[in-house]
Every structure is written in structure tokens, then in C-alpha cells.
Amino acid sequence: MPWIVLVFGLGYVIVWVGFSAGAALAQWGLHSAALLSPMMAASSPRAAGVILLAAGVYQLTPFKRACLTHCRSPLGFLMTHWRGGARGALLMGLRHGAYCLGCCWALMGVLFAVGVMNLVWVAALTLFVLMEKSGPAGIVIARLAGAVMTAFGGLLAFGYQWP
Predict the structure, then answer these.
(1) Model confidence over 130-152: pLDDT tens digits?
(2) How many alpha carbons lie under 13 Å from residue 82 in its C-beta half-sphere?
């Protein structure tokens, strides 16, 4: 029976490896086009603003809320999506991985605005994801962050400059 857990984990890992490959290709393409700084942050405030705006709007969508709900309760997910056998475990892992990816992909994209190599921002986003997924007010936190990112991203995207 422990092998079922491994097969479930394999499905989850497949989703995240696929996303990681796509993110690495995006990083390579943006870097090649000189759209990223040496710290792998958007080289223009407007580009950073568009990224933040997109991530903020996504945080406010029903799709984000649905993914976050599934991601916040892995036991609930297993109880409502159970499939028997190795194939079922793999499909459950793929599906749960897709929900978690749906929950976090836009936040991972924010790293292109603030710097993929900026460990302070990586740590801050990690803490945010932890609070969003396991804190009692996770959905409220997600929506507040979405509103802040949308407002700040909109300002940057439309040319606002700090004094």
C-alpha cells in the first residue's frame, strides 16, 4: 500500500516539473530578449506592473478560490476524489498537483517582477503561500493580496513613478 503514496506523489511531481520547465523556458526567453535584469527581475517598471496586475487579478478569480479550497484540504480532496489502484493514485496526484499549481502559478510569476534571484522576495512569497494555504483566513489573505497587487501593478503598468 505505501507504493500508492509514491504513485500519487509522482503525479504531483509531474505537474510541478512540467510547470518548472515552462517557467525556465519563459525565464530564458525573457532574459534573451533583455526583458530581465541580472537579478532576473523585470527590467522595466511597466513590465513589472503588468505582471503584478495579472497576478493580482488572478488572485481575485473564482478559479483561484476553487484551487485554493482544494489545496487547503488535502484530506478533503482525497475523500472526494478517491480512485483505486496505481492508475487512480497517479490521476489523483495529477489532479491535486493541478489544483496546487492553479493556486500558485501566478504568485510564482510575481518573481519575474521582483526578481527570481532575490531571496528576500522568494522567502516572502513562500511565507505568503504558507499563510494562504494553511492559515485560518487563507482565502481572505489571498483576496487582500490580490487587491494590493492589482492596485500596485496598475499604477506601475500605467506609468506611475515613485517620487
Answers:
(1) 999 888 899 999 999 999 999 99
(2) 6
Euclidean distance between CA atoms 100 and 114, whole angstroms = 22
Neighbours of 144 (CB within 10 A): 12
Does residue 121 sit in helix, strand or coil? helix
DSSP-assigned letter for residue 135: S
* 65 vs 143: CA distance, rounded Å: 9
Cβ neighbours for 9, distance < 8 A, ≥ 6 positions apart? 93
CA dist., res. 122 & res. 87, Å (int): 35
Q: How far apart are CA 9 and CA 118, in angstroms?
A: 29
What parts of the chain have a pLDDT lower than 50? none
CB crowding 3-23: b at 16 or more within 10 Å, else e: ebeebbeebbeebeeebeeeb
Residue with cell 501566478: 106
At 62 the pLDDT is 95
pLDDT in tens, 57-76: 999 999 999 999 888 887 77
